[in-house]
Amino acid sequence: MLSTLARAATRRPLTVIGLWAAFLLLGFGLGTGVFADLSDDVPDVPGTESDLADDYLSGVDPTGESVTAVVAGEAVSDAALRDRVERTVAKVREIAGVAEVPDPYTTPGLTARDGQALIIPVTFEGGLTDEAEETATDSAVETIKRIDAPDVHVSGGELLGRQLGERAQQDVKNAELISLPVVLALLLVVFGGLRAAALPLVIAVSGIAGALLGLFAFSQVTDISVYAIQVTTMLGLGLAVDYALLTVVRFREERRHTDDVVEAVHRTVAAAGRTVLFSGLTVAVSLTGLLVFPSVFLRSMGLAVAAVVVVDMLAAVTLLPALLARFGDRIRPSKARSADEEGRVFARLARFAQRRRVAVLVTVVPVLLLLALPVSGVRIAIGDARQLPSSTEARQLYDTVDAHFPKGTGVSPVVVVLKPGTDPATADRIRALVPNAASRDLPGGNTVVELQPPGTVDGTAATGLVERVRELRGDEPVQVTGVAARLVDFRAMLADRAPWAALTVLAAVLVLLFAFTGSVLIPLRTIATTLLSLGAALGVVVWVFQDGHGAGLLGGEGLGALSLTAPPLIVSIAFGLAMDYELFILARMREARQRGNDDHEAVVTGLRRSGRVVTCAALLLAIVFGAFMTGGFSPILQIGLGLTLAVLIDATVVRMLLVPATMALLGRHAWWAPRPLRRAHDRFGLREPATREHPAPTSA
Predict the structure, then answer these.
(1) Stretch 670-674: mean pLDDT, rounded?
(2) What is the pLDDT of residue 40?
(3) Rg for the chain (alpha carbons), in Å?
(4) Integer CA distances (angstroms), 83 to 76, 110, 146, in order
(5) H/E stretch holding 610
(6) Beta bridge partners of 440
(7) In the chain, domain spans
(8) Which CATH architecture has domain 60-161?
(9) Do 60-161 and 390-487 show the same overall fold?
(10) What is the spatial distance between Cα 617 and Cα 655, in angstroms, rounded to a whole number?
């Protein structure tokens, strides 16, 4: 298969390049439309009680979305300001599609006790079309923003999604402007020439186009989170650079041994292409675990990121060979080095770990387990506006309200739907759970009770209130929804489906690694060492962003919990990336064994020849992830830090120390498989012909 692709790409390179150019235009043209259709509503899980109750209310509740404005910076009792506010409120009420705008001066709770701020909530009519709601929202915001006051902030509802989408688009642009020049500079150091360094960037741009186009396609059938933009784009950019780096390094090696550029491309694809193919499949398979969860957000993230990985993989085995066939004669071969000089540092590390394998294991493993300890106390939450950068409109509104109003102001209530037939005594017990419970009747004999929890929107008091209502109702026709209820249902969904997701991913990865190596023990060893690096990275994220140790240094703050999106995404993506580097190394080990090296020397040779590529690839990925962390969104900070640490720990401590140590412990049994599986691998395992040995120059 790979040989066929290589021949097609080298036979008609301009055609292949032209097709990819059309793809880039499509990605950066049509794909950017995704920024206009992003959602900040992550925790909905179809079929759960909170989702069903929310759908029920949408059908019977005549009210629609709402936005909130806050005016601050001068005394609200000032006659001139009051006149401006009241005239503005009157104008907003006249806007088509606006259902209600209470007077902040006569409505209790809308004027701050310190007299320095007031809140203007605007509720829109239910049943509006998207276009009508957007028009009404824009008109209301424009009118409110005309109030002459030091601070006027408006956010919430559909407006919040748009504001976050605009910010996400800007953050992606900034991250690309930061990361691409730094990546190019590092590639120049690695390759020593602009032409070779530019090729990975071309593949990286293809990865970004693929990310945008994939997200746009999925946005037509499901909601796409604002955070999906950064996650998919940074992964698409990073993996594209990794795959191109591996391929170009191999091409420069092959150029040392043949002047025929096309032949060098064929050899490169036969060797490095196989690794890229398996790596891409393994990363994509690692993300299929997200499909086990019924959450629309997690499923769409899994599909979108997997699609981006496939685009990167295809670009590396089609576009890059075409570019090499067309321009490869202008790329200098790598310098010939003696066997003693090539990868000298990595060979020494491998031999050290082999000699001191027990000492390495009893030192490294406990350290990684210690770093992973905070994972045992991880908590997840939907979070509030504190997750957003301080420059966003929603965060400024939150900070202003928090500075002038009592704690809990603006916190979404726990919404209880009392359907016809509910026992009045049960309804009274539910209302008695909090003081001043608000009730309103809806058509059809339904009653909505709003329970205002103390603390944050998704704190223990709010989630505890949800659980208490569900205990009290018994078999009564009562449903609970709201932000806290959605969090409770999301947590239950994660706990229920996580074991199945893990089983799905582990089984698929075991099969792929067996197909790559023909061994049963190497896949098990790989998964065990990968889980160690993954646990250590996630533990540091918990310690920083949940417990608040050093979060400020990264532009965030300790929030008492992680974003509910961070742990599943960190685990699934980091697991796939770890497999990436494992395959880079295993490919070289396998080649060395095929050439007659014994098992110990094959490990040394594998690290000697892959260590530089793995280290550079990890550093490049860390640069890309770090660039995307400059946006300041707390979930992206958490995911970015988790992936950066996982990549760096895996590419250094695990792959350079634990891999040779564990391979030394296994010895000749490392590549063992039962006879039936060995025969199955010989017959069905995906393989390429062994590459010829190119003897390295000997030292003088």
Answers:
(1) 88
(2) 59
(3) 29
(4) 10, 16, 13
(5) helix 599-628
(6) 448
(7) 1-36+167-333, 60-161, 390-487, 513-675
(8) 2-Layer Sandwich (3.30)
(9) yes
(10) 13
Please list the residues that pair with 120 across neighbouring strands: 69
> Which residues fall within 8 angstroms of residue 18, CB to CB, at 6 or more apart?
none
Tokens of 519: 């061994």
**Local structure of residue 271 (DSSP, 8 states):** I
> According to the model, what pLDDT value does residue 103 have?
92
What are the CA-CA distances from residue 187 to residues 322, 475, 612, 640 (Å)?
20, 65, 12, 22
Rounded to an integer, the average pLDDT of 530-556 is 90
For the domain made up of 390-487, the CATH class stated in words is: alpha beta
* Whole-number average pLDDT of the chain: 84
CA distance 272 to 276: 6
DSSP string, 68-84: EEEEESS-TT-HHHHHH
Closest to 243 (Cα-Cα) out of 321, 306, 135: 321
pLDDT digits 0-9 by tens, 59-79? 776 677 888 999 998 899 999
Residues 509, 523: Cα–Cα separation, whole Å: 8
Query: Is the CB of residue 473 less than 8 Å from the CB of residue 430?
Result: yes
Q: What values do phi and psi take at 423, rounded to 5?
A: -65, 125
Token pair 């005594």: residue: 425
CATH number of 1-36+167-333: 1.20.1640.10
Residue 468, SS3 per DSSP:
helix
User: Contact at 8 Å (CB) between 616 and 363?
Assistant: no
With 0.85 as the threshold, say if the pTM is over it: no
E-state strands within 198-317: 224-225
Burial label, 358 (beta-carbon count in 10 A; 0-12, 13-18, 19+): exposed
- What's phi and psi for 477, nearest 5 deg? -75, 70
pLDDT digits (tens, 9 = 90+) for 170-198: 777 777 788 878 888 888 887 777 888 88
Rounded CA separation 70/434 (Å): 27
Rounded Cα distance, 484 and 470, in Å: 13
For residue 552, give the amino acid letter: G
Token pair listed for 314: 């295809």
**Whole-number Cα distances in Å, 660 to 350, 356, 429, 484, 670:** 6, 10, 64, 48, 11
Q: How many Å apart are CA 585 and CA 246, to the nearest integer?
A: 11
Contact (CB, 8 A) for 12 and 194: no
